Amino acid sequence: MAGQGDVKLLGTGVSSFAVRVRMALHLKGVSYEYLEQDLFDKGELLLASNPVRKKVPVLIHAGRPVCESLAIVEYVDEVWANGVSLLPADPYARAVARFWAAYVDDKLSPAWIGILRAASEEDRAEKLDTALAVVGPMEDALAHCSGGKDYFAGDSVGYLDIALGCNLFWFEALREMFGVTVIDAGRTPRLAAWAERFVQTEAAKKAAPSMTSMVDCAGKLQSMWAAAK
């Protein structure tokens, strides 16, 4: 493929944002070197590649770093233009997909992290209510964007599918750890059916973190948050 050759991805297996980029690379058929990072002891390459945020993921293509997962996904879609397109071709549909992807990162990600950070069962129940309220509008977004088809992008997985879908593994981890359901089939049946389909796609399976790694990371984060208090 044009532009392919020297591609590295700095990430961590449990990061939903890094998972998002891995899914995009898989969908576009891009070969890359994956470099696992320790976010509790950040290395020189990560700090040099993303000196502003000091976070994963970072895509390094031909020696040049690209930061922020949604920006990376768009970059991948444009550079490796052959094959499936992740973003819609129609300008309006593309703007709508970007809007909802930003909604996922601005609203949904903090909401589910709030469940993980909760210090008590009562607090966790309140944070779950917040997350459910945030998830609700995605039901109508799916109906609008998909045109009644299986995925936000229509017949196949696209930009908004992976923007939301990368969080599903942590939703399952929250269910495993605390017995909470973030995408409730009773409240959002279309979205729940979409989630079941999405996690069975090859792209999702290739990038999925292990439950053990997520639970271990959750324990480290909870200890760190408790110490900060």
Automatic annotation (TrEMBL):
Subcellular location field: Cytoplasm, Cytosol
Location of the GST C-terminal domain: 90-227
Main localization category: cytoplasm
Ranges annotated as spanning the membrane: none
Record's catalysed reaction(s): RX + glutathione = an S-substituted glutathione + a halide anion + H(+)
Gene Ontology molecular function: any one: glutathione transferase activity
Gene Ontology biological-process entries: glutathione metabolic process; toxin catabolic process
The keyword Transmembrane is assigned to this record: no
Source taxon at top rank: Eukaryota
One cellular component term from this protein's GO annotations in UniProt: cytoplasm
Residue ranges of every copy of the GST N-terminal domain listed in the record: 5-84
EC number: 2.5.1.18
SUPFAM superfamilies on file: GST C-terminal domain-like (SSF47616), Thioredoxin-like (SSF52833)
Keywords tagged on the record: Cytoplasm, Transferase
Coiled coil (residue ranges): none
Family classification: Belongs to the GST superfamily. Tau family.
UniProt-recorded name of the protein: Glutathione S-transferase
